[in-house]
Specification:
DNA Polymerase III, Chain A, domain 2, 427 residues, alpha+beta, 37% strand
């Protein structure tokens, strides 16, 4: 996998750890809430032709995180935010030519008079830098110029020409209220998409362009060397496909949404709640389907020992590490785990012996990449991990439940890996 793809996935994983939603006592998904702040312009009074509004520090940074992943990879000149202000509402829009983001801020503007609605365009990068310096409350006032004030900090904000904001997606965003929508579980869908992003992004070359298909009760994606699907009755009741990189953004946005609706508007799919709307262009194709016959041949291994060895192998050999599994026959037997860097001409290895149970008479030998395997193992609850052996070990299946999702994963395996006697140590 290319370095850029790894960077994009790591960037996404870091963002997921930022301000997010939580569960209430009944297990329902609750989006993070922010207080509506009254702006304070006592030190810097508003002129007659100026209005102001305030944004709380955590909400400001939450907004910056959402727009950062939304504008990931977009040229600087197109990383713009449109501020739409009316008497009782403040909205921030983003448009990256293939998707749009609309966020209603808490609170109302102060000293707003004149037209029913005014529109301004600001640089996202300026706002992102300002969000890192704000302490407590940021008060923003706008007239012929724009300024931001916070504790021990103030700076001008550049008002960009409104013609610079493309607004290609405006028609579909404005048609949102006319679209027929249905509700779905944001938390479940986010978890399913996050797992697909983690596993497929690492298991498939150029994984970020992989197709992800949503159909009623099912999300699936894959390619020539891996397939993963997640099933749940609470997933969106809609059929569409998107690229994996778009699903990564969608997964993050869903973390910050409450009671969520999904609708189609032309070629766009739109999800929304009371504060946030995210629309993305869909694809007419579908992700490939693996027709996998059930297998009665399995390999059972202790999860704790296996996941520890996966982490040790990754630590030793970084992202391209692989583990070879070898068990010589059926029944309860010694299983040898061999960690390697996944490069044919690198002789270094680490090894571990554990006890496994195999139902295949001839035993089995296969090789799997550690990174997607680790993401799968982290989601498996049982004490033991059961691998399904398909086509004599040419690919390996893993099925498990996590909360109200049922996952089915299949990874292409090297059934005849080359072994070396030169080891760097044992685990």
């Amino acid at each position: 996998m290319e370095d850029k793809q790894l960077d994009d996935l790591d960037f996404f994983h870091d963002l997921v750890e930022g301000p997010s939603a939580s569960l209430d006592d009944s297990g329902q998904f609750v989006p993070r809430s922010f207080a509506a702040i009254v702006p304070d312009f006592n030190r810097f009074p508003l002129a007659n032709d100026e209005f102001g509004f305030a944004i709380e520090e955590n909400e400001f940074r939450w907004l910056a995180r959402l727009f950062e992943i939304f504008y990931r990879g977009v040229p600087d000149q197109h990383r713009l935010c449109r501020l739409v202000v009316s008497q009782d509402a403040i909205r921030i829009d983003g448009d990256n030519m293939g998707a749009f983001l609309r966020l209603n801020l808490q609170g109302k503007p102060l000293n707003f008079t004149g037209p029913k609605q005014r529109t301004y365009v600001l640089s996202y990068d300026e706002l992102a830098r300002a969000s890192k310096a704000v302490k407590g409350i940021a008060s923003i006032k706008i007239g012929t110029t724009a300024h931001l004030y916070s504790e021990r900090f103030r700076r001008p904000l550049t008002l960009v020409s409104q013609t610079k904001f493309v607004g290609r997606c405006d028609k579909f965003a404005n048609d949102l209220d006319l679209a027929i929508s249905s509700e779905f579980n944001a938390r479940t869908t986010s978890k399913a998409l996050e797992m697909l992003g983690q596993v497929l992004g690492d298991a498939i070359p150029d994984g970020l362009s992989t197709l992800i298909t949503l159909s009623p009760g099912l999300v699936r994606g894959g390619g020539s060397c891996a397939m993963l699907e997640a099933a749940s009755a609470t997933l969106p009741n809609l059929s569409t496909s998107i690229r994996l990189n778009a699903s990564i953004t969608l997964s993050l946005v869903l973390l910050h949404m409450g009671q969520t609706r999904i609708a189609k508007s032309g070629p766009f799919c739109i999800i929304s709640d009371d504060r946030l709307a995210y629309g993305f262009e869909t694809i007419a194709e579908e992700a490939p389907t693996w027709h996998v016959a059930p297998s009665t041949e399995t390999l059972l291994l202790p999860k704790s020992e296996l996941i520890d060895f996966v982490k040790i192998t990754e630590s030793a050999f970084m992202e391209n590490a692989h583990i070879t599994f070898t068990i010589d026959g059926d029944g309860k037997r010694e299983c040898i785990l061999l960690g390697s860097p996944g490069v044919d001409d690198d002789p270094h290895e680490i090894h571990k012996k554990t006890t496994g149970f195999c139902t295949r008479n001839q035993g089995v030998r296969f090789k799997l990449p550690t990174r997607p395997l680790r993401f799968l193992l982290d989601a498996v609850d049982p004490t033991n991990v059961e691998f399904a052996i398909h086509k004599a070990g040419s690919f390996i299946g893993l099925q498990f439940e996590n909360d109200d999702l049922t996952f089915s994963a299949y990874l292409l395996a090297a059934s005849k890996p080359t072994l070396s006697s030169k080891a760097v140590g044992s685990a």
